[in-house]
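dude i think i finally got it to work??
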Amino acid sequence: MKTVITLAELKQLHENTENIIVIDVRSTNEYNEKHIPFAGNLPIDILETGSFTPEQGKIVVTTCGNGGGRSEQAANYLREHNKNEVYFLEGGTFGWFND
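look at this
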């Protein structure tokens, strides 16, 4: 099962579907510095409390900084606790601005 999504795939999904939720799992301070324009902020420590349940049928993409670490951990958590398609963004938030 594919767990990572590329920047090109995310851009295509964003342009072609309303069925996507992008979550930046960095701290609020980090998120406020720079984030993907259509991403929401839900720090990983809050996400892992189980207080967030994505709408059924939505594709969820997690992202953080340069990718990996926190975003993969958050994606794995969401995948285990929900029935949504969940990916983490290769290259992370900052990859959005480097493209």
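The helical segments are 7-16, 28-33, 44-47, 69-81, 92-98.
im so relieved honestly
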